[in-house]
Amino acid sequence: MTEASHQASRSRNGARTSTTTRGETVTSAIPAVDTAGVNALLERGRTLATPVLRAAVDRLAPPMDTVAAYHFGWIDAEGRPAHGDGGKAVRPALALLSAEAAGAPPETGIPGAVAVELVHNFSLLHDDLMDGDEQRRHRDTVWKVYGPEQAILVGDALFALANEILLELGTVEAGRATRRLTTATRKLIDGQAQDISYEHRERVTVEECLEMEGNKTGALLACAVSIGAVLGGADDRTADTLEAYGYHLGLAFQAVDDLLGIWGDPEATGKQTWSDLRQRKKSLPVVAALAAGGPASERLAEILAADAKLGESQTADFDEEEFASRAALIEEAGGREWTSQEARRQHATAIEALDGVDMPAQVRAQLTALADFVVVRKR
Prior knowledge:
Layout: H1 3-15, E1 18-21, E2 24-27, H2 35-57, H3 64-71, H4 90-101, H5 110-131, E3 135-136, E4 139-140, H6 142-146, H7 148-167, H8 172-198, H9 206-231, H10 236-263, H11 266-269, H12 275-278, H13 284-292, H14 295-310, H15 312-315, H16 320-332, H17 335-353, H18 361-376
InterPro entries: Isoprenoid_synthase_dom_sf, Polyprenyl_synt, Polyprenyl_synt_CS
Protein name: Dimethylallyltranstransferase
Region (Disordered): 1-25
């Protein structure tokens, strides 16, 4: 067994009943989520950020303004007003709470909330095209409706707008916030590049997968939960500590995404069944299953090695039964359980990081509730 396999096996054995962080046992159970409270936080973020987000999108030249409006769910493909699902709004909610954690009004974090949301959606537009995803939020993706060229151009424009929104504030704090956002964006792009490269490799270690997901998802969530504090005048130590919370929350978020990417209900996720398996993604459940050893792990490795020889054109014709069989092998090898426990371990580490910031008790409780929501969500 390889060193990576030993580590994954040890992690699996330790994760069957509990996980550990800093030498302490952490139970896998997540407290009951304050659904009403979390929904109120998400709605506040959406309500405060959306008008500024719309104004930013209105700066784009036609037809990019229309394409972006479609992506955000404000219009349908015919240009008629729509009330589509604009996403969970976790990042705007975190940016506003971030400002409050630093003792500033939540409105201080609005430019940061909008900037992070613009970068997030820049990445979605490009990711959908690169992954060949035809559905997002129960609608056709931008590249499917308007073509790949518009998906690329609008994504680039949203990234430019994000920096513009911050820099036009003209303050020292805005400059600091922009540096954090551009660093997070570069890491996000690093993570996407790693993700694509892993699809063409037979083996990826658990460590490599966690590094990729920390870049792809953790970096921007870390930025979201520090950018409001920076705009509110927080020092670097406070911002860095909040980033630690956001980074581990991002890893928990992505672990849940990986589970939903294989076993999620398409009615809830808005994506195809077995979506990550169709794209041959080396997500955490797959990587953990391959590293675990045993008959199911070995069979899965043989199947994926055969896929690599066939090429994408032939594997694209697999039927539902084939993907269901692969999902069952991943689960039998322990990949599903390991990933579920990893989400809880990262959740616990994120909550622990909050101890390093002196903040109002209500803000701490709200950050904790959002972390709980991330781990138990179904979409």
